[in-house]
Amino acid sequence: NVLLLPLVDFCEARGFHVAHVIGLKPGASKGSFEFLSSVPAMTILGAYIVAYAIRIYIMNYYKNTRGNGVPLDNKGFFAVEQIVASLTMVALAAFVFFAPGTLGWTAPQVTQFHDAAKHPDSIAILSGVPFGIVAFFSVFIFMFKGRTATFAGLVNRLTSLLAGTTATLLLWVFFKTRFPSLQDWISVLFILIAVYFLTRAERLRVRELGIQPAMAAGPAPTPLPVGGAAVRPR
What we know:
Layout: H1 4-13, H2 39-64, H3 74-102, H4 108-118, H5 122-137, H6 149-175, H7 182-208, E1 224-226, E2 229-231
Antiparallel strand pairs: 1-2
């Protein structure tokens, strides 16, 4: 949307009627960027970016930083990234749940969350189980020996985007909801191109390190001392 909406407005203003081609109404971008002046929206966006910056740092720390001769420890990454993240989310949920009674919070979002947690809906819980399972086990891609954090991190995110389009397609088939738009398919094309180049780069890295394809998932290469510091060859 960040790419297409301004482009559609630009073309429409110059007489090129392209909005209907990609399933948009003329002027669809009006109001699309009002969130930039919203304090709650920008607070959420800022928190998301900061949290991901910390997450990426942790990912690269456990994948690329260790002493000379120390083997790669993916278990450490799993413990810090997944277990701590899960405990943090549980703690925050508990804080919001008890906030109305202990802090007197009455915001609709807080009271609705409190009521929903107090009277759980089994169907709603069941609908979230598949997502939770996929989200939890998707971290295992970071634990594959021989894979760089760059490759594993991006492929992990890209596969989740593909899952969204796949879910939209399945909903269209079984529940007659909206068919994936041209924007969705363009996004899928970009994702497949990205995965293609990521795969080529990863195979090139394996060849440069002299790792046999069958051994790519084997022990990580020994770090090389450079200037007194141990780093992984890239």
